[in-house]
Amino acid sequence: MSQATGVATRYNFQVVFFVALGSLTYGFNNSIMGTVFGLPSFFAYFDLKDGSSRQTSIEATTQGIFYAGGIIGCGVVAWLADKLGRKRSVQIITIACIVSAAIQAGSVHIAMLLVGRFFNGMGSGMINVIVPLYQSEVSPPKMRGRMVGSHGFLIVVGYALAAWTGLGCYYENNPQIQWRLCLALQIVPPLLLVLGSSWLPESPRWLLAQHRRDEALKVLNRLDDTDPLHGSREDHVRQECRLIESQLELDSRKPTNLIAVLKNASYRKRFLMGLFVQCLAQSTGVLVINNYQVILYNGLGLSGSVPLLLYGVYTTWAAFLNWAGPMIVDRVGRIRMLSVGMIGCALMVSCEAAMVAQYGGTSNEIGNGFGVLFLFLFVTFYGSCVDAISYVYCSELFPTNLRAQGVGLSVMGLFAMTLVYTQAAPVAFADVGWKYYLVFILVPAVSTPLMWFKFPETKGLSLEEIGAFFGDEIADGSDPVRHIDEKGEEGHNKGQKMDVGECDVVHDDN
User: Fold this and answer.
1) Which residues pair with 491 in a beta bridge?
2) Exposure b/e, 266-288, CB count within 10 A at least 16 = b
3) Cα–chain center distance at 163
4) 84, 179, 191, 495: which could join 506 in a potential S-S bond, CB 3.0 to 4.6 Å?
């Protein structure tokens, strides 16, 4: 990995994809209630009459309390990841997800369901932070987009599995098994992850931050398959280790408490960028469309098992796109794909709003068919260009000593915006109908140009090199002096060297 040339091993891929069972956990847990809302037996068990204000309130509360728990989870996970390590955090979080899922599946009244849903949201929030954080720290730069992109891919696989689970349970004759089985299956992915977690290595960057150099060297040696141009492979890995240590030494000179961090211009800019990207991604309306899709299909005049079938196809298509997007992001670039995706989503939501306004609730098959088409075109843009890519970008912005806090705050923005949008959705659709879509058209249209012109491109750079965009001192154990401009290009005319240990350090005068 010098990190500009690191090559992933088979073991590296296995580690990244196995920990993505946590991504599957988040995706399934997040989406399953939208599926359960399509099962009449759920509402019958809790005596919720179809179309009643109490049903609408419970739907909003069930989703809202999940995202409220997620916000708290995002705040807690930074302390957990830095104190106990990335690997131990994964183990603790998965146990929390298992217990909270069991509470939901065994619920005998609404209060019990909501308690389980809240703690499940906390666990899901934490797992949604720790997985891309861990993946970014064990991935080589030239393939980091592809590897961290597996997080977004497995999230949407979770959405798809939830959708097909709901469709299968729709035909179950036992009414209680219909919805209880859906909720109980939330246990499976985190159970598999916790059972196999002892095999995962600890993040080498966290190990070096704890001064556990020998352990970090062993992990780096297994993750890196680079054939160096000069010297032995062992020397190359040691050089990589020295580079990370030197950067950690530089970063340790800066404060890490939240108030001091926000006073630091470099760190504050990173935090705002990560938060902006996640908030903007949710402002496309993706989770409103996903979680209330069955209700949206009902509004287009579709009923019975057809909405559940369409939902299954929709999420399966989205999962494929979340696989395809990360395969090219290391060549195309993060900002370019995010910008194209945001504008495409806004255009498709505009078309969807027009179809709902004109044909919603009517028997016009052509108009309703176009309504379904635009939902699929929407997820085509979002799945290929936004979903996985937003996690990739946010996981890259922060130095090791602040990565847990930074990714946690960024994903907190995801949960906060989703809480606002989904909590308002049932009432908004009932009161203003298609006009609610205007939010998801205007916000991306206005905000995307700011991202395009002001946010740096991070493709192909090591996590340590990215700090150059923000005026940080950059340790480099190979090139005498390196300066990285906002387009990701290297130059050798700016910056000055500082000696830290065995590595040269670049200080950007700008």
Assistant:
1) 483
2) ebebbbebbbbbbbbbbbbbbbb
3) 19
4) 495
Per DSSP (E only), the strands in 403-495 are 473-476, 483-484, 490-491
What's the mean pLDDT in 316-321? 92
Task: Give a yes or no: residue 411 inside a domain.
Answer: yes
Which pair of structure tokens corresponds to residue 9? 């091993």
| Domain membership of residue 392 as a residue range | 10-205+254-454
Nearest residue to 35 via CA among 148, 134, 158:
158
Q: What are phi and psi of 500, to 5 degrees?
A: -130, 110
Closest C-alpha among 466, 485, 337 to residue 3: 466
pTM over 0.90: no
Q: pLDDT tens digits, residue range 33-42?
A: 878 887 888 8
By the 8 A CB rule, do 308 and 182 touch?
Answer: no
pLDDT in tens, 456-504: 999 988 888 888 888 877 775 444 334 444 444 444 333 333 333 333 3
- CA angle (456 as vertex; 336, 481 as ends), nearest 5: 130
Query: Is residue 347 in a domain?
Result: yes
Count of H-run helices and E-run strands, the chain: 22, 5
Look up the CATH number of the domain holding residue 314: 1.20.1250.20
Distance of CA 302 to the CA centre of its chain: 31
- Give the residue from 459, 489, 495 showing the smallest Cα distance to 475: 495
pLDDT band for 197, please (50, 70, 90 cuts): very high
Among 139, 174, 190, 200, CA closest to 391: 139
Give 483's strand partners: 491
pLDDT at position 509: 39
How many domains would you assign to the chain? 1
Does 238 reside within a domain? no
Give Cβ neighbours of residue 227 (< 8 Å, ≥ 6 apart). 7, 233
Residue 375 within any structural domain of the chain: yes
C-alpha distances in angstroms, 200 versus 20, 377, 395? 12, 38, 19
Cα 72 → chain centroid: 16
Rounded to 5°, the CA angle 127-163-91 comes to 20
| CA terminus-to-terminus distance, the chain | 28
Over 72-132, what HEC string results? Answer: HHHHHHHHHHHHHCHHHHHHHHHHHHHHHHHHHHCCCCHHHHHHHHHHHHHHHHHHHHHHH
**DSSP assigned state of 472:** -
Which residue reads 């005998």 in tokens? Answer: 108
- Amino acid, res. 170: Y
Task: Give me the phi and psi of 246, to 5 degrees please.
Answer: -65, -40
DSSP string over 180-214: HHHHHGGGHHHHHHHHHGGGSPPPHHHHHHTT-HH
- Characterize the bridge pairing of strands 490-491 and 483-484: antiparallel
